[in-house]
Write a structure and sequence with these properties.
TIM Barrel
């Protein structure tokens, strides 16, 4: 299957418009886990995503306290070298293994960054990380200039191909950009969490920084089968139980928005999830969307977003649903369409 690709800023990487997100496959037993997960199912999901045309996987050292990277590494080894996807990972969140449910330390000290990169390389079983990202801003007083300077050195040494950041604001992006070009930004962005469209996405578009958005289905809410009953059945250690979007009164608004996407999904013959993901791709500056899956069937539920184009009247219909339901916050409709001139089928 051919999926459309877009350039990831000026990094030289061309990525499919949707990528495989490996957060949930880290399993449970830590602060932001999704409950237990079978590793064989995870590997099958990654391999299926690649077979369907996806050319990048996004993981992080903190997911499952290293377990997600290990599972991704196993999947890579089971794929022919010519079919292996780009590997993106993140660092800067340091857990206390003896207290896995406590908030990780946000540490971007240069020595810690280097140590994490070396550990990620070992777990993934690769010689170079295609995109290494700072997961969150530092909380220990380390200047972004120090941290980003270390990123620059890791790139020069060949341990990392491209450098990016996640959850950074415009001020931090500008400071990092003065040290070395920021190849990519990873912000949260969905029909519910739309704030990035007001600041960091336009900044990135203006500076040649690629954008890969995370949680475009709002961690499962904007999917066909989601329900209140699903929340009640979530594992006790599933982080979503503590999140306001999964509790009233926000949950009812979010489900009403999800239901409003059904007519558009039906017209295109795709899932609601695919429509939700495709909406994020209509914003100028967005290169791709990270979408999680725990099984091959879940991949099939949203992969149509990789080639789905929403028309202007459909974007207006969605904007109306956002106003009517009052779900989420942030801009409701892109000023222009995504730069489809750069989109091309993956070879």
């Amino acid at each position: 299957m051919s999926l459309l690709t877009r350039p990831l800023g000026t990094s030289g990487l061309h990525i499919t418009q949707v990528g495989f997100g490996a957060w949930a496959i880290g399993g449970g037993g830590w602060a932001y886990g999704w409950g237990s997960q079978n590793d064989s199912d995870s590997i099958a999901a990654i391999k299926h995503a690649v077979t369907r045309g996806i050319n990048w996987v996004d993981t992080a050292a903190i997911y499952g306290l290293g377990h997600s990277e290990e599972v991704v590494g196993r999947a890579l080894r089971e794929l022919p070298a010519a079919e292996r996807p780009y590997v993106f990972t993140k660092g800067g969140m340091i857990p206390d293994p003896s207290r896995p449910f406590e908030e990780p330390q946000r540490n971007l000290r240069p020595g810690s960054v280097r140590k994490e990169v070396e550990a990620s390389l070992r777990r993934l079983g690769v010689e170079r990380i295609d995109l290494y990202q700072f997961h969150w801003p530092d909380a220990l007083g380390t200047s972004v200039e120090e941290s980003w300077g270390e990123m620059s050195r890791l790139i020069r040494e060949g341990k990392v191909r491209a450098g990016g950041v996640s959850n950074f604001n415009v001020g931090l992006l500008e400071r990092a950009e003065r040290v070395r070009h920021v190849d990519s930004l990873q912000p949260p962005f969905s029909l519910i969490h739309r704030q990035a469209a007001a600041d960091v996405i336009p900044w990135s578009a203006a500076h040649g920084t690629g954008v890969i958005v995370y949680s475009p289905m709002q961690s499962g809410i904007l999917t066909d089968a989601f329900s209140r009953e699903r929340v009640e059945r979530m594992a006790a250690d599933d982080w979503r139980r503590r999140n306001a979007e999964f509790q009233e009164p926000l949950l009812s608004r979010n489900l009403a928005l999800r239901d409003a996407l059904q007519p558009i999904a039906s017209r295109h013959g795709v899932s609601i999830a695919a429509v939700a993901v495709a909406w994020t791709l209509t914003w100028p500056g967005v290169s791709g969307a990270i979408v999680g899956a725990r099984s091959p069937q879940q991949v099939d539920g949203w992969i149509a977003a990789g080639n789905l184009t929403l028309e202007g009247d459909e974007l207006a219909e969605i904007a109306g649903a956002l106003e009517r339901t009052q779900a989420g916050a942030g801009p409701i409709q892109p000023v222009g369409s995504a730069d489809d001139a750069h989109a091309r089928p993956r070879a």
